Q: What sequence folds into this?
């Protein structure tokens, strides 16, 4: 990804200060994306632990089979 101050319409002709500004904006966007990703991961983890555990099978399951018709 190439971010240059010359390509930005609001920063055209700003020189190095425009590049610093666009780099700052890119960093802020990456931080916001990271926070959103962490929130999503935490929400997924908390909903998985809140679900009821699966029923465990017992040792006697299937011991009595009715074969009479």
A:
């Amino acid at each position: 990804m190439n971010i240059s101050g010359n390509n930005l319409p609001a920063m055209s002709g700003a020189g190095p200060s425009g590049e610093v500004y666009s780099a700052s904006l890119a960093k802020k966007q990456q931080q916001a994306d990271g926070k959103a990703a962490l929130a999503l991961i935490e929400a997924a983890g908390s909903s998985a632990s809140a679900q009821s555990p699966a029923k465990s099978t017992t040792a006697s399951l299937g011991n009595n089979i009715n074969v009479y018709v």
In short: The chain has one helix and no strands. The radius of gyration is 29 Å.
